Amino acid sequence: MTPHLPAHLPALLFDLDGTLVDSVPDLLTAVNSVLAADDRAPLDRTAITAMIGNGARKLMERAYLYTGGLPAPRHDGETVIETLYDRFMEVYGDHPTAETTLYPGVVETLTTLHAAGHPMAVVTNKPEQPALVLLKKLDLLKFFSVVIGGGSTPVLKPDPLPLTTALERLNATGRPAVMIGDSINDSAAARAAGLPCVCVTFGYCHGPLESLGADALIDHFSHLPQAVAQVLSPAAALAGAD
Ligand SMILES: O=C(O)COP(=O)(O)O
Ligand SMILES: [Mg+2]
């Protein structure tokens, strides 16, 4: 019997914050500028890192709860969270890359995978507008034919919808596919979508790495092609069934 080989190269779905880029410095600047306008104490890197992962609304909610609580409800009907989100986007929306950096090996690895012909998408909980600005400014947009950000679908990761929407837009529904991320939201969304997940160890994981439940962990981006092959191999599938 011939060994089972995928009919197509696997589609690759990439998380953004904590996976491709270290975006904490610009997120910190933006959140602290909103907090400062409200006479709140600034967050430090450790505090904000623990708040990243569930999108900008959750980030602002967590930042305010951490620094004294949510502001009083407004009288014009707009929810407090929506107001905080708008203020954050005023600062961050067009300027998400002053100090944001790529993790080592990202450009080289994406170049190789793109040249090999993998359909590739970004699936991030960061709002779509700053995600697109960031990818363009850091010259990553050319690798991805689809970008799903916060607001592109009605729900965020860990719901599987952003991932399944990305696969549809890549015309890759039914192909083998792998999610690559750094958080429980990525691994949970992947599991719910029926996909394996490779997690990086250098991102914004909020607990022990084992808690991610990843099918493979990589500590350098250059190890990704090997990890993708590993999580899609029949041996890995059998091991997962134990
Ligand atoms: O914006 C966030 O909270 C996290 O974004 P990510 O999904 O790219 O990690
Ligand atoms: Mg992330």
UniProtKB/TrEMBL annotation:
GO terms for cellular component: cytosol. Pfam families: Hydrolase. SUPFAM superfamilies: HAD-like. Its EC number is 3.1.3.18. GO terms for biological process: carbohydrate metabolic process; DNA repair; glycolate biosynthetic process. Mg(2+) binds at residues 15, 17, 182. The active site is at residue 15. Keywords: Carbohydrate metabolism, Hydrolase, Magnesium, Metal-binding. Pathway: Organic acid metabolism; glycolate biosynthesis; glycolate from 2-phosphoglycolate: step 1/1. Specifically catalyzes the dephosphorylation of 2-phosphoglycolate. Is involved in the dissimilation of the intracellular 2-phosphoglycolate formed during the DNA repair of 3'-phosphoglycolate ends, a major class of DNA lesions induced by oxidative stress. This is Phosphoglycolate phosphatase. It comes from Novispirillum itersonii.
